[in-house]
Amino acid sequence: MAISIIIVNYKTPALTVDCLRTVFTGRQAIPTEVIVVDNASGDNSQAIITAAFPQVKWISLSYNAGFARANNEGIRQSTGDVVLLLNSDTLNVDNAIENCYRQFIASPYVACGVQLLNADGTPQISGNYFMKGGLNYLLPLPYLGKFIKWLGNVVKVEKPNVPDSDNLVEVDWINGAFLMVKKTAIDKAGLLDADFFLYAEEAEWCSRLRKTGQLCIYGQYKVIHLQGESANEAFGSSGKGYYNLYDRKGLQIMLSNFVRIRKQFGAGWFLFQLAAYTFNIPVLFIGSFFENGVRLRNPFREFNLAASFARNVFRLWRFVPVILSNKPYFYKVL
């Protein structure tokens, strides 16, 4: 088998069917195995998906294992020399999967991605660069994040990502919505870290894959990513990207990011970032009060949002001992 495509499904049969439709309408001139791993959806996902595409290999897990563990099970049962982790909320455009595979398999790269697009055709961040201590995780912070971004522009710090590309670009880590990896690299780097439930696992994995060889984005190939739709639909959240820090999904994002910081950059950077997030609590309350007052709006209008952020940070503090210990633990709060 040339390539094994692994799609994780959790209560999103309609998205998964749409994704598979674009996968199977490609030329399929290469031997392709498609594996759907279901995270104990408890609905009619299997009936809907396998009725539409009986050729898929269906794997049912007994609990909601999240992204890393579900993909690991798919990788273990795959037969391809190359595996593609593909989100259920993606759409294969102009046979991008096969075209990407053909260029990738003939290259020295160990992992690759493509240029992800929003539904309206605008580019999404698809490739990223490591920043010391994971400092880019400070950018979503209200007020403090804007100041850090402004300061970075002043001192001309290189951007931590590739905002758009039309050709090959070497990167440090790749968006997990479309992540193609050679089995030989997985044999050396290992599977995804099973401590992660959702978010940041692909960044940590790429840090280990990066030690076995180079990673790249093939920007000439495009895949539509309905960013966040699978998680939002499954967990009743809203918003795209990773700037939502206020609900249960936001807590999961924060927790996973901090676990990654501890694993990849060490305890010192973990504690530094935790201090920054904690410091941002009064900054958010005070900043929103004065900003709304200056704009002649109710100065307390953002206090519920600030309180939600504060609750998530305080919940994060409960995990500090186990994160610092760096012992195996399943960081799931959704």
From TrEMBL:
Residues annotated as transmembrane: 267-290
GO MF terms held by the record: transferase activity
The protein's name in its UniProt record: Family 2 glycosyl transferase
Gene3D superfamilies recorded: Spore Coat Polysaccharide Biosynthesis Protein SpsA, Chain A
Glycosyltransferase 2-like domain mapped to chain residues: 4-131
Keyword Transmembrane: yes
Keywords tagged on the record: Membrane, Transferase, Transmembrane, Transmembrane helix
Annotated source species: Niastella vici
